[in-house]
């Protein structure tokens, strides 16, 4: 699944190419944190969280080798039915869209090359996603303020505690710093996937997020 450097790069591209106003985003900081939020409580990204929430609940997905988060259901439950939708909620939806798109493309790629999902595919996939993430220029880090904490507390799927929001922001900052220190230029040598794979998945995820935020899913 996309790591936080990839999710952060998607946010920066959305803001750079479309602009917050065109996407209906008022609080860019909250939208950025929302793009990280679904991973906060799963137990592998943020240390010392106050509690855990199972991945299948945070991502509305079955536990499979390559799960497909149901971003459409998230939209139905937490966006379409709400009188007011926070930017953090929209960010969480965008996270699920990206996860779904990249994982769907991974499933198709493995099927095309005749590789069964399993440990070998998992190791190669994770290595390649990590390498791809380091090719991206990112700089944005969420900052914890009262406005963000209010949206975290009111997140309709589950409340995000202040301690955990602050810990997530610290992790996000460390990831940006690591990306800068270990930035990869040129086309990397991937173990399993390809540069074309990442370009295609990235473009599709971007387009789906733009379409939803601009109103395509509301029609």
Report how far apart the termini are.
Answer: 29 Å
Structural class determined from secondary elements: mainly alpha
What is the count of helical runs? 10
The main pleated sheet reads as: none
- Low-confidence segments, given as residue ranges, are none
Radius of gyration: 17 Å
Nearest-integer average pLDDT? 95
Q: How many DSSP-defined strands?
A: 0
The level of helicity is 55-70%
Overall outline: globular
The ordered H/E elements are HHHHHHHHHH
Beta-strand proportion? under 5%
- Total separate domains: 1
Q: Mind explaining what this structure looks like?
A:
The chain is mostly helical and 219 residues long. The chain has one domain (4-218). It is 58% helix and 0% strand. It contains ten helices and no strands. It has helices at 4-17, 20-23, 28-34, 55-58, 71-80, 87-113, 119-133, 146-153, 162-181, 195-213.
Features:
219 residues; mainly alpha; 10 helices; 58% helix
List the helices and strands and how they pair.
Elements: H1 4-17, H2 20-23, H3 28-34, H4 55-58, H5 71-80, H6 87-113, H7 119-133, H8 146-153, H9 162-181, H10 195-213
Helix pairs in contact: 3-6, 5-6, 6-10
Summary, kept brief:
This protein is mostly helical.
């Amino acid at each position: 699944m996309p790591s936080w450097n990839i999710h952060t790069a998607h946010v920066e591209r959305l803001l750079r190419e479309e602009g917050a106003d065109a996407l209906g985003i008022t609080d860019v900081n909250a939208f950025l944190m929302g793009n990280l939020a679904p991973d906060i409580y799963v137990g592998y990204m943020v240390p010392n969280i106050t509690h855990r929430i199972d991945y299948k609940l945070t991502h509305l997905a079955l536990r499979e080798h390559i799960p497909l988060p149901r971003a459409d259901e998230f939209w139905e439950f937490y966006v379409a039915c709400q009188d007011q939708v926070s930017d953090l909620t929209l960010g969480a939806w965008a996270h699920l869209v990206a996860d779904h798109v990249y994982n769907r493309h991974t499933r198709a790629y493995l099927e095309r090359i005749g590789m069964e999902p399993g440990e070998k595919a998992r190791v190669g996939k994770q290595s390649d996603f990590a390498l791809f993430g380091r090719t991206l220029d990112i700089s944005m880090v969420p900052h914890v303020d009262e406005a963000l904490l209010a949206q975290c507390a009111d997140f309709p799927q589950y409340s995000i505690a202040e301690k955990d929001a602050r810990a997530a922001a610290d992790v996000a900052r460390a990831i940006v710093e690591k990306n800068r220190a270990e930035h990869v230029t040129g086309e990397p040598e991937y173990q399993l996937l390809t540069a074309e794979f990442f370009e295609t998945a990235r473009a599709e995820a971007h387009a789906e997020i733009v379409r939803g935020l601009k109103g395509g899913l509301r029609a």
